[in-house]
């Protein structure tokens, strides 16, 4: 007989389940049965039974919880109300002979107390609620790295949801990851769980098969919550899973236990780090609002160092609370100086290094080595190819080892093929690399990683601009670069790896990898220019300038000067920009480099235009055309002439120069050149008041620009389209284009955003 219970539980009351719950193999051998199973079998609530028996609801509740022994008169009333037969009467009357503290009849609750500073996690709590409400899902796996707060979340949810489990809440630590290293066997876990449910040891079968059969019968007899904490793997968990729909099981593990999703339909919930607001709230609960408000800058430093790991925040909060007179700035200093040392405590269960080590020591040798070397990668995310280069292994092996690290939550894969190492795990991996890898092996690993980024960024640069002149081949290496299919893939790769490349370029310069530094600057140039990353463009070419001078590479020196000048022009540092461009011009002429000379003249024209010296800009553009050593140089010169002609109002000349440049760029297949000159032709037609022609060219430019992924030029073209619409008396279309341009400029941190904002603000 079944009765629907709150939250979707189904209570199935059978004679077998009843006797097992009471720890009896034979009902005649023990009369310690409470009232509740008989009431549930009759499909009655406590209130309904009290009304029918003429008793108080509290009396029914006290009898069921074992607080009181039923008196003879009360028993007679209950027997009549429940319409019990002789056998059931014997069961019930036997209860009156037992001591009042018959605790076995009280639903077992072995769930440990939760933390008093629990905060946040509202989305995860909702997901747990939803998993319980789903009739088809009775198994949920909480997975995540050690210290992420899996158990804390499960306990908080379990206590909050206690009324949903009238049969009790049972908890066990399976010791899958612990300082002792003694993993609990499933049979031992089953015996402990049976004990938690009131089963005496003599009643528990010795035979393993009989044990698990008995265990499942007992645990499945009530609507319960079962929490299996610290599980090692699916094999440890499977024998302990109830086969009753009444029991909701939550498994907690550092491993993902994907096998349980396949075999038992488990719902797997990944537990990630706290966001900034949750981290701040957690620390506030420990230290108080006033203390945090007194040192907001130090609090931000602490939050950054703890990187959203609840255990780290708990350790710091505990240390700070025991030192109320210490400034938080001192704790922040300690964290930044030696992060893992600052988080060390005497107790292994909450010491961060120890917690991480329990997962690390379970890795095979090859996967463990890969994990250690990941600590040498400076970027926020890594690809399979980057890790293969770093470790000096094949991509297939790298993929295998990364998968293993993800399964034990020492690594995450937030997007396909992109792997992220938590900051504190990175610090732990770096410590291991220092202690377990020789200095020479670490040096070789970093060199292999740098080779990977040099080779792949070179291929990506040539996909972006196939007509670029190339440098001498990069340093010889056995590393295979990542495959870049086309220009769109090149832009995607540069965007994904931008932060990593910045850090690797800085390392290469600091480590004296001069050739690598020069190649990285050359490879990144077009992407940085297209995306408007002017400051980094200036800094990486400044590093390349020092490297080139050390190598006595005069051509690279001229190239570096030129691109520093381009970046500084965009940053409106005109005097410094001119100094670098003139250095580049002089070197290019000395080297007989006609293309370099012409290109530098083009950039001097851009500088003069930006500084408001239009006549000088036109002269530099004409000089660029005279100096052009090839078709590409001519196209750049024609483009510069078109632009400077626009500035002096010679719009018809600008259209003609633009058409000549466009023909060369299209024949060369240069999308970047094509996009730029189409925009200038559009500008020129706008100046001639040919608005339809202007829109046609600007829209063509925009299409190529979007394909290129050049955000800076995209913003420029959108702003121009808005201007044309405005002059064509189409205010709605104008505002739409200006808004789109403003959004891009703001994302780039460009001051042009303020000018557009003024246009969009009503006078």
UniProtKB/TrEMBL annotation:
Gene3D superfamilies with a match to the protein in the record: lambda repressor-like DNA-binding domains (1.10.260.40), P-loop containing nucleotide triphosphate hydrolases (3.40.50.300), Tetratricopeptide repeat domain (1.25.40.10)
Organism superkingdom: Bacteria
Segments annotated as TPR repeats: 675-708
PROSITE patterns attached to this UniProt entry: HTH_CROC1 (PS50943), TPR (PS50005)
SUPFAM superfamilies to which the protein is assigned, alphabetical: lambda repressor-like DNA-binding domains, P-loop containing nucleoside triphosphate hydrolases, TPR-like
Transmembrane segments: none
Record's keyword terms, sorted: TPR repeat
Matching Pfam families: HTH_3, TPR_12
Example of a GO MF term: ADP binding
HTH cro/C1-type domain segment(s): 35-89
Alphabetical list of PANTHER family matching this protein: HTH-TYPE TRANSCRIPTIONAL REGULATOR RV0890C-RELATED, REGULATOR-RELATED
The protein, known as: HTH cro/C1-type domain-containing protein
Organism encoding this protein: Glycomyces algeriensis
């Amino acid at each position: 007989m079944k009765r629907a219970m709150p939250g979707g539980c189904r209570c199935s009351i059978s004679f077998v389940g009843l006797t097992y719950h009471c720890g009896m193999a034979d009902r005649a051998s023990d009369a310690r049965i409470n009232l509740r199973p008989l009431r549930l079998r009759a499909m009655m609530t406590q209130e309904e039974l009290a009304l029918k028996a003429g008793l108080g609801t509290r009396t029914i509740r006290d009898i069921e919880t074992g607080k009181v022994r039923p008196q003879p008169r009360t028993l007679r009333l209950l027997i009549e109300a429940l319409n019990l037969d002789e056998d059931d009467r014997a069961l019930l009357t036997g209860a009156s002979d037992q001591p009042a503290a018959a605790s076995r009849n009280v639903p077992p609750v072995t769930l440990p107390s939760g933390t008093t500073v629990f905060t946040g996690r509202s989305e995860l709590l909702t997901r747990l609620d939803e998993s319980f409400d789903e009739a088809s899902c009775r198994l949920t796996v909480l997975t995540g790295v050690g210290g992420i707060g899996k158990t804390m979340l499960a306990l908080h949810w379990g206590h909050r949801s206690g009324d949903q489990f009238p049969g009790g809440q049972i908890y066990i630590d399976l010791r899958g990851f612990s300082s002792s290293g003694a993993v609990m066997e499933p049979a031992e876990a089953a015996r402990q769980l049976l004990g938690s449910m009131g089963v005496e040891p003599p009643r528990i079968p010795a035979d393993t098969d009989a044990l698990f059969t008995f265990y499942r019968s007992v645990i499945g007899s009530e609507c319960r919550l079962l929490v299996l904490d610290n599980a090692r793997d699916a094999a440890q968990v499977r024998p302990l899973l109830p086969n009753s729909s009444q029991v909701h099981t939550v498994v907690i593990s550092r491993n993902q236990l994907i096998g349980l999703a396949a075999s038992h339909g488990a719902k797997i919930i990944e537990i990630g780090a706290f966001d900034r607001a949750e981290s701040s709230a957690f620390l506030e609960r420990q230290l108080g609002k006033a203390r945090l408000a007194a040192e907001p800058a130090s609090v931000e430093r602490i939050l950054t160092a703890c990187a959203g790991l609840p255990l780290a925040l708990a350790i710091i909060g505990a240390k700070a609370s025991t030192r109320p007179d210490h400034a938080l700035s001192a704790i922040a200093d300690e964290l930044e100086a030696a992060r893992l040392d600052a988080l060390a405590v005497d107790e292994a269960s909450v010491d961060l290094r120890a917690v991480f080590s329990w997962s690390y020591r379970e890795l095979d040798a090859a996967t463990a080595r890969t994990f250690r070397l990941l600590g040498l990668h400076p970027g926020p995310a890594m690809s399979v190819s980057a890790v293969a280069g770093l470790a000096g292994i094949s991509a297939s092996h790298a993929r295998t080892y990364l998968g293993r690290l993800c399964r034990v939550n020492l690594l995450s894969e937030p997007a396909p093929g992109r792997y992220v190492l938590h900051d504190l795990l990175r610090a732990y991996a770096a410590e291991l690399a220092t202690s377990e890898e020789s200095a020479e092996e670490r040096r070789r690993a970093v060199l292999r990683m740098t080779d990977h980024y040099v080779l792949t960024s070179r291929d990506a640069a040539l996909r972006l601009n196939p007509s670029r002149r190339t440098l001498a081949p990069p340093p010889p290496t056995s590393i295979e670069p990542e495959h870049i299919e086309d220009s769109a893939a090149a832009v995607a790769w540069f965007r994904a790896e931008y932060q990593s490349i910045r850090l690797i370029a800085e390392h290469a310069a600091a480590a004296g990898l001069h050739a690598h530094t020069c190649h990285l600057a050359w490879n990144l140039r077009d992407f940085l220019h297209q995306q408007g990353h002017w400051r980094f463009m200036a800094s990486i070419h400044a590093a390349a300038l020092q490297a080139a001078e050390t190598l006595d590479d005069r051509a690279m020196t001229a190239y570096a000067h030129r691109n520093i000048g381009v970046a500084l022009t965009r940053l409106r540092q005109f005097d410094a920009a001119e100094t670098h461009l003139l250095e580049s011009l002089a070197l290019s002429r000395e080297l007989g480099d006609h293309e370099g000379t012409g290109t530098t003249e083009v950039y001097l024209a851009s500088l003069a235009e930006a500084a408001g010296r239009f006549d000088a800009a036109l002269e530099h553009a004409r000089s660029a055309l005279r100096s052009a050593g090839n078709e590409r140089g001519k196209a750049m010169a024609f483009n510069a002439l078109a632009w400077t002609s626009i500035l002096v109002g010679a719009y018809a000349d600008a259209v003609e120069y633009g058409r000549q440049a466009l023909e060369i760029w299209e024949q060369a297949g240069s999308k970047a050149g094509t996009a730029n000159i189409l925009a200038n032709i559009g500008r020129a037609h706008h100046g001639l008041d040919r608005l339809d022609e202007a829109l046609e060219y600007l829209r063509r430019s925009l299409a190529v620009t979007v394909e290129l992924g050049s955000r800076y030029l995209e913003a420029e073209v959108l702003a121009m389209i808005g201007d044309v619409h405005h002059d064509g008396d189409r205010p709605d279309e104008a505002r739409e284009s200006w808004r789109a341009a403003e959004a891009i400029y703001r994302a780039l941190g460009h001051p042009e955003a303020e000018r557009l904002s003024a246009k969009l603000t009503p006078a």
